[in-house]
Amino acid sequence: MQDRVDELIKILNEASRNYYELDMPTITDQEYDDLYHELEQLEKKHPELIRDDSPTKRVGGKVIDEFVKVTHEVPMMSLADVFSEQEVRDFDERVRKIVANPVYVCELKIDGLSVSLLYREGKLVRGATRGNGVVGENITHNVETIKSIPLSIDIQEEIEVRGEIYMPKRSFIKLNEERQKKNEPLFANPRNAAAGSVRQLDSRIAAKRNLSTFIYHLPTPENFNIKFHHDALSMMCNLGFTVNPNIKVCNNIEEVIDYIVEWTNKRSDLPYEIDGIVIKVDDLNEQQRLGYTARTPKWAVAYKFPAEEVLTKLTNIEFCVGRTGKITPRADLNPVHLAGSVIRSVTLHNEDYIKEKEIMINDTIAIHKAGDVIPEVVRVIKERRTGEEVPFKMIETCPICGTKLVRKENEAAYYCLNTMCDARKIEGLIHYASRDTMNIDGFGESIIEDFYNMGYLKRIPDFYKLYQYKEELKELEGFGEKSINNLLSSIEQSKENSLEQLLFALGIRHMGKKVAKIVASHYGSIDNIINASLEDIASIPTIGDIIAKSIREYFDNEENMEIINNLKELGINMKYLKEEVVSDESFENKTFVLTGTLEVLTRNEATDMIESRGGKVTSSVTKKTDVVVVGKDPGSKYDKAKELGITIWSEDELKNNLRIE
């Protein structure tokens, strides 16, 4: 009889582990139920045969009055977070100051709830939460219901192991479906669901939630003569704990970076949520040499994946004046990490946008990166309002020149109509020199503003007269002979740009990069555009009346024509330089979408190269998309491409197909 009980327990426990942890079922649900029922009946008739690790003890039933506090003998410290490849490399540099050639262990950072498990004489005697790292809460009654946690292990010495309790994705989906049917509030994510489950006083609730665990830390390796962290993981795995299989020993930081890139791209394929990568020095003696800060070990960090959406506080609303005089409200934020960068401000577009979203100063807001690039307000977290919020009020005069603002008909934006406004002039000069327009290298926004205030750069033609101030520029901080020569050389090179770059650079209203190219290629020279009628311009495909009117108004303005004539006299090219389209079957007649951050090429460079080879670049992934090019930290477009079975290229694959080094 005992032999059959032991056999059933072994079969059922192994089946549970294969099903819940390895996602590799070895028996059918019906077979499991039959065996479980058999064991249940045997234990009912012979209670003396019940073992502590029997799966029948996982159903819950214990109810406690309150959570008892637990003091951790070895504190459960948190890890320092890093958010970029450079910060990972900085961590490596700090380690190398003490350890010559560190070897690292990389692990997936499970998005769940930390847990400590204590065993004495081979029996589970306590499960506890991390709490504040020193004092946690006893959750043994709930831990016992989790099938991946062994109730007994083959070791008599006292041993504590630590890991993460999490809820698998399929359990989370099922739980929310059940709650929806009962009109109960839905859990926001698997982590919240897991945390809520282990903090139930009634263990039957936790038992129904199908929680799971990964064990990743042995606090007292010296008690078991273990020298390396990866050996500790192997030991815990051999004892029957579930250790994540996607662990890698990395011999240098380049292998660590490769691991991060690999799992950044593959994380959506996992049956559980991860929110980053944990990087630990493998040698335990080296860990001791590196030591600890007051809160975190110096021998480990947690690389956090860029968040798709983060919360921060909106501290103020300022108003920016654009080159067209358009007034744009901008929100100042408490700095927050989002998709690989630190966000300190975000555009609020216009008065209507702010009113629609009910945004107030001092609000807590959720932001994400629209199109994987531009930070954008998603919503206001109204439940966090404290009464200290200040309603938004649109300004009535230009914040720079004091001119009364005008809201144009059929537009949401206000404008400063003073063409002599310093802010408008500076923004126009910045736009002219930018990479997407005349691409004059070396002109940052602050340099243009300084040159404007010094009187060297007041109008667009003044760029081409800066050589007259070469000696004066040498006296400025940060401007040596070489940097000035490079700046003047870049200005000279810009004279050879094609007409579409000049048109875009001039700041003609509604004249974006694509429109500029369409108009330039249609007319061939700026004189032909100047002489074209409103009707003629409007007849160009995709242009239309509004854009045509804006173009016509620009060239009908005497001040603008003076700028054009000055540029002609200074030798700036006024003709469209037709691009030679290279026939390439990898690109010709194919539609591309770019997502994520490209590290070598800019998006504009990649777009130009693809289009010059006969391809087309669009912003949305559809069934008609042929290739999605994925950079660092790709967004939902990458997921949609996988879902639709669209060809996916890395940046290296794009470069190879473009035949560039």
Characterise the protein shown here.
The strands form 6 sheets. Strands 12, 13, 14, 16, 17, 19 and 20 form a 7-stranded antiparallel beta sheet that branches. Strands 2-11-10-3-9 form a 5-stranded mixed beta sheet. Helix 12 (422-433) crosses helix 13 (445-454). 36% of the residues lie in helices and 20% in strands. It is α+β, with helices and mostly antiparallel strands and 661 residues long. A hairpin with a 2-residue loop joins strand 4 and strand 5 (123-129). The protein contains 24 helices and 24 strands. The longest helix is centred in the first third of the chain and has 19 residues, at 2-20.
Strand and helix map with partners:
Layout: H1 2-20, H2 29-45, E1 69-71, E2 80-82, H3 85-96, E3 104-110, E4 113-120, E5 123-129, E6 135-137, H4 140-143, E7 159-166, H5 169-181, H6 190-198, H7 203-208, E8 212-217, H8 229-238, E9 248-250, H9 253-266, E10 274-281, H10 284-290, E11 300-304, E12 310-321, E13 326-338, E14 341-347, H11 351-357, E15 360-361, E16 364-370, E17 374-380, E18 390-391, E19 406-407, E20 414-415, H12 422-433, H13 445-454, H14 470-474, H15 481-493, H16 499-505, H17 513-523, H18 526-530, H19 534-538, H20 544-556, H21 558-569, E21 591-595, H22 603-612, E22 616-618, E23 627-630, H23 636-644, E24 647-650, H24 651-658
Parallel strand pairs: 2-11, 21-22, 21-23, 23-24
Antiparallel strand pairs: 1-6, 3-9, 3-10, 4-5, 4-7, 7-8, 10-11, 12-13, 12-16, 13-14, 13-20, 15-18, 16-17, 19-20
Helix pairs in contact: 1-2, 12-13, 16-17
